[in-house]
Amino acid sequence: MQVLRFIHTADLHLDSPFKGLNKLPEKLLYRLQESTFRSFERIIEEAVKREMDFVIISGDLYDGEDRSIKAQARMKRQLEKLAERRIPVFIIHGNHDHMGGRWTKLEMPENVHIFHTEPEVKSIETNNGSVVHVYGFSYAERHIYDRKIDRFKKENQGGFHIGLLHGHCEGSPSTHQPYAPFTVNELLAKEFDYWALGHIHQHAVLSEDPYIIYPGNIQGRHRKEKGGKGCIEVNLCKDHTSIQFIETADIIWEESVVSAAGITEFNELFTLLTAELVRFRKTDQGVILGIQLVETEALSAEAIDKIHSGELLEILQDDEDPEQNFVWINSIDIEAKTFSNAGVFDTGFMDELKAAFEGFERHHLEESTKDLYHHMFARRYLHDLEEEEEKAVIEKAQQLILQHLQK
Q: Which residues form the Calcineurin-like phosphoesterase domain (predicted)?
């Protein structure tokens, strides 16, 4: 019985700038910026250790179209390790690292096949004598909305057939751009043995017969990309296929909801959150942890003030070493109060306040903060806010107002 053993990975985003995280300590920010490289190195180590037949990378190897020399050089060094073991690599480029960008090009090793901008097939015979036909295409430009899937044509009837596709599955809840759209039924109709997808940063299995899989990205880059990240080991045969998720991320993003029910004093709260550090600490990975406190009604004014001032956060961060298996609490938020549970206030006033928040737009935030950005000293430490950061600032302002009203 012929079996193919390979690793499927995607969305490496090597050399990601990790925008919006400038306030992290320098050593932690450096480790975060290195994390995409470290995760990819672990994937290569696993491919060598497990003696894979080949490796598939389904798009977005680099974070931008102007891929840096640094990222290319480090990519090349890792692929050379596979070349030394005669392990082929199949690569497609996605919307982030499309072929239409401008960059200084470094040639990849001879074991690497990079697909052109129209769907094509590359056939090889593995070391165990299995024949595999691999299909794919690279993005010619950043925005591809046409149905490239229509141009995938199964060639030959023997061997295994594997499709590489960086795109959006129609009908899925993903918020990613709907590039190179397809449906699961369209993929099934091609009668391939495996579909190696990319583009969606959350691991997802769309079908098991045959397997159609998004491996997710290899390293979370912000709080919304939480949980384990890595690659997929595939053991593919005609009768039965098995998969295994291999976690490789150097840093994990996590969130925890912590009940403060019955807690009044600051010291009790500090002890409670110290236990969260122990609970989330891992053996050989760092963790960036966001905490939401709920059931905080009994907390003293002093404890609440220590949260809002950042003092509690600071002492919990104090002994963490960014070069080790740290747990870095990045935020402590008190359970969001809404206008419906904000307490007993004059209804007309609350309606006006709610309307003010709903009508608050980006230009209002810019107007409110312009003096700070023009200040001769403060502006040195500020950066332009990303859309997600702007939303977070507005939400935080709403919570502070509601909390002060309840006091």
A: 4-202
DSSP state of 103: -
The model carries a pTM of: 0.84
Task: Say which residue the tokens 């491919």 belong to.
Answer: 47
Residues 107 and 222 placed together within one structural domain of the fold: yes
Of 335, 352, 372, the last residue of a domain is 335
What is the tens place of the pLDDT at every residue in 201-242?
Answer: 999 999 999 999 999 999 999 999 999 999 999 999 988 999
Domain shared by 171 and 293, yes or no: no
| Amino acid, res. 199 | H
Look up the domain containing 259 and give its range.
251-335
Beta strands in 281-394 (DSSP E): 286-294, 327-334
Taking 70 as the pLDDT cut, the residues of the chain under it are: 1, 22, 175, 336-347, 350, 361-362, 376-384, 386-389, 392, 396, 399-400, 402-407
Answer with the one of 335, 363, 381 that is the final residue of a domain. Answer: 335
Among candidate residues 208, 278, 267, the one with its CA nearest the CA of residue 243:
208
Task: Say how many domains are in the chain.
Answer: 3
